[in-house]
Amino acid sequence: MFQIAASQVCGGKVGLHEAPPAHSPRLVTVQRLLDQASTLLELARVAQAPTKIGGEFFGTTPGELAEIQHGRYGTPTLAERKIAALKRSIAACEDHGVKASANIVVPDHSHAPRVHRLLDEYSPHLSVRLLNSLEHGTTSIEAIERILAKRGAVATTHYITAGVSGARVAYHLPDGRRVSFKQIRRVRLPETCTGCRFNNETDCHEGFYGVRLYYDRTGRYHVGVCIQRMDLSLSLDEFLTSSLRSEILDLRDSEYHRLNARRAG
């Protein structure tokens, strides 16, 4: 069976997730969005559980941020206010002992200045995770490697989760800051992915990333295994008694033993 050590509630507006802070602190990690206006008011309440405040960084200057906003809101003045609020949120996280993390996608080396500004101008309390762009392939990976080399980053730990495609390498910078580089391994479900029309190097970048839990308008939960094949989704009750569940567990166990054997050898 699945053994759940932690669950993560992410995305959407903070107001959509009222219940998680009331759950057992041992089981729930509540991931909020850094740029939500209500985050500051929520911190004291949710800090009772192991909490991580997370956000995607699309712009580190008012000009960059304004470029990706709707035309009605895409002014440097409004963007500057959002960045100021973001920095206050990060400071509030530090005051409350709450972890704050930032994801930043690096399509190519032209985005390097964004990363350097994030590391130089934002609080060292902020944990930074660099993500390669799946669409840009090796160009993105090489750009991140150049950025890390310029910062004098030293790889310390390689994290691999057996049975899923997500992996990351943790780096330490000379100033003591910790940065991670998230990558995607080639992992496929041995039965479900075989014969899938997307199962090729062009159409399937993510592979099997893990299960995702969806909540529909009728209050039912559904389990998905592929962001491109929603037809594979099953209701939670169906999933728990399906061969798909067994396939996922078997893949996890077999890869866990393989990785351990490789490490021991």
Characterise the protein shown here.
The chain has 265 residues and is an alpha/beta fold. It has a domain at 188-265. The protein has helices at residues 39-46, 62-67, 76-96, 112-121, 137-150, 236-240, 243-264, and strands at residues 7-9, 28-33, 51-56, 99-106, 126-132, 154-160, 166-172, 178-184, 212-215, 221-224, 234-235. Helix 1 packs parallel to helix 3. It is globular and about 55 Å long. The two termini are 29 Å apart. This is Cyclic pyranopterin phosphate synthase.
Describe this protein with a few key phrases.
3-stranded antiparallel sheet, alpha/beta, 265 residues, 7 helices, single chain, 11 strands, 8-stranded mixed sheet, Cyclic pyranopterin phosphate synthase, 32% helix
Gist?
With 265 residues, the protein is α/β, with parallel strands linked by helices. It is 32% helix and 23% strand.
Q: Roughly what fraction of the amino acids lie in strands?
A: 15-25%
Number of strands: 11
Overall 3D shape: globular
Q: Quick check: average pLDDT?
A: 79
Strand line-up in the sheet with most strands: 1-2-3-4-5-8-7-6
Number of helices: 7
Could you list the spans in which at least 5 consecutive residues all have pLDDT below 50? 4-33, 35-41
Order of helices and strands: EEHEHHEHEHEEEEEEHH
Q: Structural class, from secondary structure content? A: alpha/beta
Sheet with most strands: 8 strands, mixed
Q: Which bin fits the share of residues in helices?
A: 25-40%
Terminal residue distance: 29 Å
Radius of gyration equals: 20 Å
